[in-house]
Amino acid sequence: MQNMQLITRELINEMLTPEEEREWMTYTAHLPKHELEEAREHLVSAGVITKALVRVMSEGAAPESEAVQKLMHQHNQLMLRYRLRERLVTRGNWNEHITRKVHAMGMKLVLRMASPDGSVSGEQVFNFCCRARQASKWGKALDRIASEAMALEARHASAHSAAAQALAEDLAEVCEAHALGDPVLYGRWYIEFGMLLVDDGWVPVDEPHRKAWALLVDAVEASRRPAGLRAAAAW
User: Fold this and answer.
1) Phi, psi of 77, rounded to the nearest 5 degrees
2) What pLDDT was estimated at residue 119?
3) Measured over all CA atoms, what is the biggest interatomic distance in the chain, rounded to whole angstroms?
């Protein structure tokens, strides 16, 4: 625990300005105690799973292997249990810039703790996890749904259209089957914190994907409205 505290302080000094740290501390001081405890528990649990990923990665396991995919599913369950996406979206509404920085800092902390001897870099672990997500059943399904949503958005399709509603249903099924949680919350989280592979590097979600996911979110929300309201909106 002491080592984690030392690394946390190093990362704070490296990634946050004194003003940003003060704003973050002021914000968290007003959060419910249980939410702070959840965040700490998630950080420790995520570290355990990431260490396991580093171990199987070092043993030569492929991103698509059963051992890796099992750990990725456990990671999904962990994010759902500790409401990570919900907390990020909520804090993004408070201050998106600082939330992004603190989120990146937390990821660096988990990655650094997963390989304390430095035998595997945080970047290597992060890239491996992204490749595992890309190779997963749910990752492939989400990429397909997003691709189709991009095509619909380019044609200015309505969220109430049959095609958009079909994608909304697909998204809800994928989220339910793979512990991704509420599809609306997942979509909002992905718009702000998702990553894309571009030229062998991972970058924040671009504008076309943001618009596609916004369409998916709108489509899921439209599907939840009473039939009369859906008909009025379509009209």
Assistant:
1) -60, -35
2) 83
3) 62
Helix (H, G, I), strand (E, B) or coil at 202: strand
Q: What are phi and psi of 204, to 5 degrees?
A: -60, 155
CB 230 within 8 A of CB 168: no
Beta-sheet pairing, 201-204 with 195-198: antiparallel
User: Alpha-carbon distance 46 to 174, whole Å?
Assistant: 22
| Residue 213: both structure tokens together | 């996911």
Rounded CA gap, 29 and 102, in Å?
A: 15
Joined tokens for residue 93? 């509404």
Instruction: Give me the residue label for tokens 């929300």.
Output: 221
Two tokens at 219? 């489509």
The per-residue pLDDT for range 201-222, each reduced to its tens digit, is 778 889 999 999 999 999 999 9
DSSP symbols for 159-186: TTSHHHHHHHHHHHHHHHHTT---HHHH
DSSP secondary structure letter of residue 201: E
Tokens of 23: 């704003």
pLDDT at 196 (0 to 100): 83
Confidence (pLDDT) at 201:
72
Give the three-class secondary structure for 197.
strand
- The per-residue DSSP string of 53-102 comes to HHHHHHTT--TTSHHHHHHHHHHHHHHHHTTHHHHHHHHHHHHHHHHHHH
Tell me which H or E stretch contains 151. Answer: helix 137-154
Q: Which parts of the chain have pLDDT scores under 50?
A: 2, 235
